[in-house]
């Protein structure tokens, strides 16, 4: 079964093409990370999935239903953590949550959900007075109501402290293990890396890559560089003949080996250790950060590397 | 049924709004004060109370639209601006649920306010005069509620078409100006304007039936006409223009017509507002 399918999905705001001819299929049970810099079109895509906005062209199907003709049926089975929400009414966190439970005709226990997201002691305070991180936790609790078949989380870690991110990850993993499909967007690579089965990378409205993390690594060349510091000059050891080794060179007492297959690193180390005295080993994998920057051109509105965009 | 959950949530929030309570208290004090100070000239107790409510009706014509607009102008625009709409529509609610739920709760809020105002005025009037003309007070309440509801409908409809507070304010102020003030400002009101266009610019013979019909499209004029239906005939006011003593407006400009004007002002803005909200990118 397919959880989400978009077909030629396009959304223009005036002259700006926010989402451009997007074809995306997400299978049921998957954890799909939707990655891209700010302004790449991730939120626009999510808003289209939920019928908050209407496509200029193309179609959206969620859980087998058309997003525009059957938004209510979709919302029955989906849990949403939206982006750019607000808790504006003078209601407590618990009242917001109870409202969500009532609206979904669910039988969840509000205390249990508040505990799950770490708001156990704050349920009776006004949600509008919460810190950003607490509001994010409450929004996450609302998304979890009625154990939805599909969780759509737009930048779920926004405003959360590391502890909160950890908790969120655990709950997401737990739900995914129980069969829930998870579709979440992020501009933080490590977050996507940590929980996703598959990743889609958006840039300037286009889907530039869809693959597993390993697949992405491979498509980036999969290069790993190994540096072996030896007691004497490590020349003529025959490393080049090993499988998965692209090239090697000697730099004073250091042997630098380029591997096309990361798995070849162990073989190289064993091979060299049998023939010379190795004093230190350093390994560099092509970082996904570099790949991500490569795919997205460093972002739409600034050229900073992703690392610095992290909050 | 999620409509009821939206209404309940919105009404709970409104009930906790200190500003709303402050306004309601102020208005109730105002009506109580008027009821306290009012004294009819050579009137019996019952006539005094009737005259009092008739006089308050004159003030309500200008005041109630403000109450309704203030209570409703942010109903949907506020949710769009703050992002609350993302929760409303992330849960199994349709846009129609949101629209109607908001309308219902704001109608509830202004009804409560109006009950508050009428209650204080009635209590004060009865205490001062010892008479309670139930028919007139009840009738005045009914037409006042209808009149206020018209402006709630207009405000919710306008609120559904905009996404920012500033625009919602502009729309509310604009509608008050066009639908209320433009009919009462001496010198620049609609009646004079229509007459000017018809007679001076287009060169037609004066046609007061036409001018009055145009005048009657205002909810304010309709409210004044509707009050004639509930007060004794000697207190009825001539709301429309009378060029000569002999002029009698045609039957279709009778007091009952006001109900149709109210119905139109309820239905048309709501239909347009809903249609715009249904198609909007939120």
Characterise the protein shown here.
- By secondary structure, chain A is of the alpha/beta class.
- Chain A folds into two domains: 217 residues, Rossmann fold, CATH 3.40.50.300; 63 residues, Alpha-Beta Plaits, CATH 3.30.70.
- Helix content of chain A is 32%, strand content 30%.
- Chain A contains eleven helices and 14 strands.
- In chain A, the strands form three sheets. Chain A has a six-stranded mixed sheet, with helices on both faces. In chain A, strands 2-1-4-5 form a four-stranded antiparallel sheet, with helices on one face. A four-stranded antiparallel sheet of chain A has the order 12-13-11-14, with helices on one face.
- The longest helix of chain A is centred in the middle third of the chain and has 16 residues.
- The radius of gyration of chain A is 24 Å and the shape is elongated.
- The two termini of chain A are 36 Å apart.
- In chain A, 41% of the residues are buried.
- The C terminus of chain A is likely disordered.
- By secondary structure, chain B is mainly alpha-helical.
- Chain B has one domain.
- In chain B, α1 crosses α6 and α11 crosses α12.
- Chain B is globular and about 60 Å long.
- Chain B starts with a helix and ends with a helix.
- The model of chain B has no long low-confidence stretch (mean pLDDT 92).
- At the A-B interface, α2, α3 and α5 of A face α1, α4 and α5 of B.
What secondary-structure arrangement, pairings included, does this model have?
The complex is a heterodimer of chains A (311) and B (282).
Chain A (H helix, E strand, L loop, with lengths): L1 E12 L2 E12 L3 E5 L6 H8 L7 E6 L2 E2 L4 H7 E4 L11 H11 L6 H7 L15 H13 L5 E5 L7 H16 L3 E6 L2 H7 L2 E6 L2 E6 L1 H7 L4 E7 L14 E7 L2 E6 L4 H12 L2 E8 L2 H9 L9 H4 L2
Parallel strand pairs in A: 3-8, 3-9, 6-7, 7-8
Antiparallel strand pairs in A: 1-2, 1-4, 4-5, 9-10, 11-13, 11-14, 12-13
Chain B lengths: L1 H14 L2 H20 L7 H28 L4 H6 L1 H7 L4 H35 L4 H28 L3 H15 L10 H12 L6 H8 L3 H12 L26 H23 L3
